[in-house]
Amino acid sequence: MLPRTGGILGLMMVLLLLVAGWWGLAANASAAQAQPPEPRREVQGDPAAPAISFIDSPGATCLRPQPKSDACYITWSYLSVTAAPSQYIISMTVAIDSQVRAAHWGFFQQSMFFPAELYGEGMRVSCGPPGAAGLPGLGRAYSYVLRARETGGLQAANYGAVTCPAGLYTTYLPVTLR
Q: Quick check: is 126 in a domain?
C-alpha cells in the first residue's frame, strides 16, 4: 500500500504545480489586458482641407416641471458655436424632430454662446404616454439637430436624441345610453 500512496501523492503534487503555473500565467495575462492602450490621434482625409465650425452642446435633457401634465421641455445647459479661423458664423439653428425651433444669426462674429436661460424653460414638446419610445416608464423620444453655417460656405452639425419622462395620459371612454 505504501508505494501506491506515494505514487498518488506524487501525481497530486505534479497536478498542483501545473495548476499553480497556469494560475500565474492567467494572472499575468489579465494584468496585461487591464492596462488601457495609449491614446493616439488619427488624422483622416486631406491635411490641407479647410477647417470647419465647431458646435459645443452638452447632452440635452427633457424635463416635466408640472407632474400632472403632458408638457415637457427640452433644454441644454448651453450651446456654443465657434467658426473656423478667418471665418465668421452666419447662422445656427436648433431643430427638434425636423422642425426648426430656434434660429440665430451672426454678423462678423467668430463665436456665439447661448446660455440655457435664453430659452426659458426650454422647447416645449409632448411627454407622451408610458412606453411611447419603447422604454417602460419613459415617454416619447425626440431627435435634434444643431446646425451652424459660416462665411466660407462650410457647415457643422451635431445630432442627438433625448427621451422624455412619461406624461399624464388620459383615455376618455364614450358615454352610451341604454
A: yes
Which residue from 102, 138, 105, 141 is spatially nearest to 123, judged by alpha carbons?
Answer: 102
Residue 130 covered by a domain: yes
Task: For residues 140 and 71, give the distance between their C-alpha atoms in angstroms, rounded to a whole number.
Answer: 11
Domain assignment of residue 70, yes or no: yes
Q: In angstroms, what CA-CA distances link 136 with 56, 94, 133? A: 31, 28, 8
Based on DSSP, count helices (H) and strands (E) in the chain, helices before strands. 1, 10
3-state helix vs strand vs coil in the chain, percent to 5: 20, 40, 40
Residues in the chain: 178
Q: Are 150 and 89 in contact (CB under 8 A)?
A: yes
Residue 15's SS3 state is helix
With cell 383615455, the residue in question is 171
- CA torsion sign for 80, 85, 91, 94 is negative
- Which residue pairs, CB below 8 angstroms and at least 24 apart, start in 19-25? none
- Predicted confidence (pLDDT) per residue in 8-33, tens digit: 777 777 777 777 666 665 555 544 44
Grid cell at residue 119: 430659452
**What pTM value is reported for the model?**
0.65
